[in-house]
Amino acid sequence: MRKHLAVLDPLERIIHLTRIADRTLTQGEEVELKVLCPQFLAARKGTVDTPGPLRGKPPTPKDMAIAYDIPYFAALLHTIGLFGTDGLEHLHQMITAAKAKTASIRNLKQRAKSSVLNIQRTQQVGAMTLHREAKEEEERAAKKKAETS
After folding, report:
1. What's the whole-model pTM score?
2. pLDDT at position 51, please?
3. Nearest-CA neighbor of 35 among 87, 75, 92?
4. What is the C-alpha to C-alpha distance for residues 66 and 36, in angstroms, rounded to an integer?
5. Could you tell me the sign of the dihedral formed by the alpha carbons of 28, 29, 30, 36, in that order?
6. pLDDT at 87
7. CA of residue 61 relative to chain centroid, distance
8. Closest Cα partner for 22 from 93, 84, 89?
9. What is the average pLDDT score of the chain?
10. Residue 101 CB partners (closer than 8 Å, separation 6+)
11. DSSP 46
12. What is the distance between the alpha carbons of residues 52 and 38, in angstroms, rounded to a whole number?
């Protein structure tokens, strides 16, 4: 049981940090990934006394990606979540919704054009909302800082 918890505990935090898509990682979170990812691989391999779940087998490509690629790209790009499958799944939902909205248009070219415009509009509204919320958060932080000074 302990050997599995040694793998799952760091993995739970790694998963959380790699799904953050609405902001960049803080420096502390990047350092945390740099520590947790190799710790995960070491727990998967185990030790001579207590073999890990791999039981002497070589690590899988996903194990190696978690141990080495995630910390590297987190330090390079300051995010991992923006490049995850969650974003692609959300884009798929947007495309499906746009197709449903334009399904009644008989002209195929016009339907395709309307679908693309619908998706672009949805993305622009989402981007503007994120930008507005970030700006409001900055203003609140500046106001709070001014009040405490």
Report:
1. 0.55
2. 67
3. 75
4. 9
5. positive
6. 65
7. 19
8. 84
9. 85
10. 114, 115, 118
11. B
12. 14
